[in-house]
Specification:
Blueprint: E1 2-3, H1 20-25, E2 27-33, H2 39-49, E3 55-58, E4 66-73, E5 88-96, H3 102-109, E6 114-118, E7 131-144, E8 147-154, H4 160-171, E9 175-185, E10 188-189, H5 196-209, H6 213-218, E11 220-221, E12 229-233, H7 238-242, E13 247-248, E14 252-255, E15 264-268, E16 274-280, H8 284-289, E17 294-301
Parallel strand pairs: 4-9, 12-15
Antiparallel strand pairs: 1-14, 2-4, 2-11, 3-4, 5-8, 5-9, 6-7, 7-8, 9-10, 12-14, 13-17, 15-16, 16-17
Helix pairs in contact: 2-5, 3-4
């Protein structure tokens, strides 16, 4: 982080100091999605279980896919589109139409690490045009007869179903995705996710027994899942940017040193609360060298300060 100045922070509060009611307005439930319901249905279940008006989700999982699904609550829905670009991790069982040796599968996988071309499968609801996606890690875990178990970390928007098909083409035998589970998204691991039934039970404990401990542990502050370059704004600038004014250099306390013009960034208060999402109007070096000028264009206000 590049620090321009240091000032005391008095406005707002630390995310972990908020009440449970505030957490329900600005939180995220990491759900362990089961096979069966769609992502939209899981989001609706959470909305009903927690008696909220609005929920949303990031990174759609098909009905036949399980794993990490982040359900955004109330005001945290404002950051939904900014969470779609994070890395995802999956464990998949791929079925080959013929038995292959481990060395053959490893050789085929070597063609799909790094940047690859993909056309979305017919089942997807997006435009079927060729695009580039990056595979950061592709690891063969086990091979049993014609079933291949592998682990994959990839760029958001990568279709594992299509990856299996393409690996089958390289192997010359054909393949399909048999089972898929998302194990990590936006930095949230599957071990930190909650089952819908448990969420219902914890809500009941809070309402009927006045015990909020388990429900509080099940909801993450939205700050925990926003993985954008970071900017810290001064107290005197917070009321203005919450009304839509752009953030000028005098109102910036510190920022990530790799900020580039055009980047989306997360703007925080001095106490660590997410205030808004903004777009950088300057590179980091330019912000550091200048004393005046608009540095960030506010895109979406999350928290408000009067």
């Amino acid at each position: 982080m590049i620090t321009l100045r240091e000032e005391p922070a008095n406005l707002g509060k630390k995310p972990e100091e908020g009440s449970l009611e505030e957490l329900l307005q600005y939180g995220v439930v990491p759900v362990n999605k089961p096979i069966g319901p769609t992502s939209h249905e899981v989001s609706a279940f959470v909305r009903k279980l927690l008696h909220l008006k609005k929920t949303g989700h990031t990174g759609t999982l098909d009905a036949d896919v399980s794993g990490v699904l982040l359900v955004l609550l109330e005001n945290s829905c404002k950051v939904a589109k900014f969470l779609l670009g994070g890395k995802k991790r999956y464990v998949c069982i791929m079925e080959l139409w013929e038995k292959k040796k481990r060395q053959e599968v490893e050789a085929a996988f070597s063609n799909f690490r790094g940047k690859i071309y993909q056309t979305p499968p017919l089942e997807s609801a997006v435009v079927k045009k060729l695009r580039v996606r990056e595979i950061f890690e592709l690891k063969l875990l086990d091979l049993d007869q014609n079933l291949v178990l592998f682990d994959c970390e990839c760029e958001a928007g990568t279709y594992i179903r299509k990856l299996c098909y393409d690996v089958g083409e390289v192997l010359g035998c054909g393949a399909r995705m048999k089972e898929l589970r998302r194990t990590k998204a936006s930095g949230v691991d599957e071990k930190d996710c909650i089952k819908l039934q448990d969420l219902s039970d914890f809500y009941w404990l809070w309402k009927e027994k006045k015990d909020e401990a388990e429900l509080r542990k099940s909801i993450l502050p939205v700050e925990k899942v926003v993985d954008l370059k970071k900017v810290i704004a001064s107290d005197f600038a917070l009321p203005s940017i919450c009304r839509g004014a752009n953030l000028a250099i005098p109102g910036v306390l510190s920022f990530d040193e790799n900020v580039k013009k055009g980047d989306f960034v997360s703007v925080f208060s001095g106490k660590g609360g997410l205030v808004c999402i903004a777009r950088a109007l300057m590179d980091a070096d330019e912000i550091r060298e200048k004393e005046k000028g608009l540095a960030f264009d506010i895109e979406r206000v999350v928290h408000s300060f009067k």
